[in-house]
Structures are given as C-alpha cells and as structure tokens.
Design a protein that fits this description.
Blueprint: H1 7-25, E1 29-30, E2 40-41, E3 47-50, E4 53-58, E5 67-75, E6 78-87, E7 92-101, E8 108-119, H2 120-124, E9 141-143, E10 148-151, E11 156-159, H3 163-169, E12 176-183, E13 186-191, E14 194-200, E15 209-215, E16 221-232
Antiparallel strand pairs: 1-16, 2-5, 3-4, 4-16, 5-15, 6-12, 6-16, 7-8, 7-15, 8-9, 8-10, 10-11, 12-13, 13-14
Length: 233
C-alpha cells in the first residue's frame, strides 16, 4: 500500500526546520572577555577589570555622579544574563538596556534593571508603589534588586518587587544572578532564578538601544559585574 503525504505535512516539516534553524542562530554571546574592556566605553577612572570582573566605582572616595560603562552595539529583543555584587558603603548600581547616552553628560536614559537599595521614603513618594513600603521607617533600606526603573527619561520606577521576597532570595555581599528578557513591550527580570519583574510597556518608548553598567553617585562603592552573556531573540 502506498501513502501520499499531504501538503499540510510538508508545511509543518518546513516550519519545524525553520524553527530549528532560528534556534541554532540564537546563541549566547559573551560581552566580556574577563581580561579587558574591549567593546565597552566609559571613564577609566571609574571602570577597571579585576579578578575576571568589571569593577565599577571606587572605595577610596565618594562617587560624584552616576557613571556608565556602555557596550558598543544596539540591541532590541534579547535575553541578558550576568552576575553582580556590591562592595563598600554605597548601595546602588544597575544595568541599562534599550538606552542612549545623554549628550554632554555621563548619564544614560532608558530602562534600568536596578541593583541595590533606596530609602523607603523614596518608594512612599510614588503612589503606585507606596503600599510596598508601608510599615517601614523612612530611612529603612528598600531592596531594589530586580526592579525596573526609567533612568533620566520618566525618572520613576516602573516595577518594584515585594521587599520580603527580594530579601529572601538575595545573596547580600555575594554574587547574584540577574536575567533580563526584553521582548517587544514585555520586560521580565529574574534575581537568582526568581521572577521579580514582569512589566508590560504601554507608552511609546524606544524598543532598542545600548546596554550599560552603572555605578550610582554617593558614598564609596564598587559594583562588580561578570559572566555577561546575551542572546538576541
């Protein structure tokens, strides 16, 4: 008995092969060679390489302004994975994405996956998030790890994690895994494999731009970054 394969079968086979081909092309690419800042641009007074990591900031003096180390390629939809930790009395850094340099400034504007802490009084100042900080003293540290902030553009948090959940999954003073996935209007951020942010953009803002590693102005601080990999979607 002979069987005749339908056009539907061939179509499904074609779609399957295309899918496999696309998966093969979407490889994880390392953005940091562990030895140099090749491919990155920033003030060498604030960005160095030590022990196989990018070190942003300094411990010998305060940080006068926000500083960013920017990668020299534009990305749109992607999944970015890296490790980060804070060293010193300062307490804030972050990973910029879909962002641009502010002309004539050390700043960037665009999305930031936040790292560190902020006074609870700051959180209480935003109506959408004030409930998260209720019961906390104004000068208490509110954890920002895994939060989404709009740096130098709308200048406000777009998503904050539950502080108890964040602290439960945070390795304070040690390396933490961050994963950022940007797909169209949807942005998700994981901290140590726990989903902290799942945000849907409703405004007309850029869906592509540069990546940047931040050290925030303030007391002496080093933000260490390593194992930086990206997969374009």
């Amino acid at each position: 008995m002979r069987y005749q394969l339908s056009s539907t079968f061939y179509y499904c086979l074609f779609v399957l092969l295309i899918s496999f081909s696309c998966q093969e092309k979407a490889e994880n690419v390392s953005l940091f060679d562990g030895q140099s800042l090749q491919g990155w641009e920033g003030d060498p007074a604030f960005f160095t390489v030590k022990e196989g990591a990018i070190v942003a900031g300094r411990l010998v003096a305060s940080i006068p302004r926000n500083e960013f180390l920017v990668y020299d390629k534009v990305y749109g939809d992607f999944e970015l994975q890296l490790k980060a930790k804070l060293v010193g009395p300062g307490d804030n850094g972050g990973v910029q994405f879909r962002s641009q340099r502010v002309e004539g400034s050390s700043e960037m504007y665009g999305y930031q996956a936040d790292i560190g802490y902020i006074n609870a009084s700051w959180v209480k100042g935003f109506e959408d998030f004030s409930d998260l900080a209720q019961g906390m003293e104004d000068d208490a540290q509110f954890p920002l790890w895994g939060a989404l902030y709009d740096e130098s553009r709308r200048k406000k948090p777009l998503a904050l994690g539950d502080p108890a959940e964040v602290m439960q999954n945070l390795h304070q003073g040690e390396w933490n895994d961050l994963k950022i996935r940007a797909e169209g209007n949807r942005i998700r951020i994981w901290l140590n494999e726990v989903l902290i942010t799942d945000y849907e953009e409703t405004e007309d803002v850029a869906k592509s731009g540069y990546l940047g590693l931040q050290v925030h102005s303030g007391p002496p601080l080093e933000v260490w970054y390593k194992d930086i990999y990206i997969q374009e979607l």
